[in-house]
Amino acid sequence: MPVPIPGNPLAHTLVYALESPRGPVLVDAGWEHLDSWGALRDGLAAFGMDVADVHGVVVTHYHPDHAGLAGRVREASGAWIAMHRDDAAVVRLFREAVAADDERTWELASLRRAGADDGEILGTAERRRERIDPPAQPDRELEDRELVDLPGRRLRAVWTPGHSPGHLCLHLEDGDRMFTGDHVLPKITPHIGLCPYDLPDVDPLGDFLRSLDRVAAIPVGEVLPAHQHRFHDLAGRAGEIARHHEERLAELTGLLSREPVTLWQVAAGLGWREPWADMSSQSRRMAAGEAAAHLRVLERRGIARREGEGDPLRFVLR
């Protein structure tokens, strides 16, 4: 069921409903918006299902285009909400930050840390921030390899961190299908970012590449992603995405030298779908997060290192 994402070039999230004797179990729920809610409700009705009968919602990851409507589904049906424990922890932190109203303070500190120019920081401070409500806290926290509560079927959680710390793919073992969320998409690559930019002891891109290898080793017929369209050859597509990131790592290495450069300078030097000068502030922050994730891999491979400890973050070739 395509559930719209208002104002987003992805257009919609593909939400899947799996039948069971206790009612349908949804894979993701879609963006929290009146139009999205109507599309989800009408999509279920087209298959003879009622949102009030939903048994549960498995959220592949906490991002709002996947988890946003889960709380409303729970209110309408009493359904449980499940996600991996690492994403459940992120949701708790998100809800605490919103309650404390310190999101903007954190955002400005991150820009200074990255080495953004004064104009960027001032513009962000003055710009009205669009409020996104945090997703509902899940009732259940799934572990890797755990079977989902889907009576009569075998839907197994496969932990695939990278796009989010607790991203899950879901292997329908009795149906020869894999629900891949945002982990493996047919034509585009998901955003892999490090946020905060210097968060210690985490390696989202390294995790993502290892997760690609993991799902590629699971033989399945049809792949059901959360965006675009269904496809086949999961292993082949996972390999294409891994090669893309190796090319990106080589591009980033070419921007480094013995002369320290800030994270912001590195991000601005990379090729993006639109010129850096035309990108919104939010897009630039996401680009900096992606650059930081790639730099972390280069650090762990012994190719790059951080120069100094203070603000802003600076990097050199090792």
Automatic annotation (TrEMBL):
Keyword Hydrolase: yes
InterPro entries the record matches: Metallo-B-lactamas, RibonucZ/Hydroxyglut_hydro, Sec-metab_biosynth-thioest, WH-like_DNA-bd_sf
Gene3D superfamilies: Ribonuclease Z/Hydroxyacylglutathione hydrolase-like, Winged helix-like DNA-binding domain superfamily/Winged helix DNA-binding domain
Keywords: Hydrolase
Keyword Iron-sulfur attached: no
SMART domains: Lactamase_B (SM00849)
Domain Metallo-beta-lactamase: 12-227
UniProt GO MF annotations: hydrolase activity
Protein name stated in the entry: Glyoxylase-like metal-dependent hydrolase (Beta-lactamase superfamily II)
Species annotation: Actinomadura namibiensis
Upper taxonomic lineage: Bacteria, Bacillati, Actinomycetota, Actinomycetes, Streptosporangiales
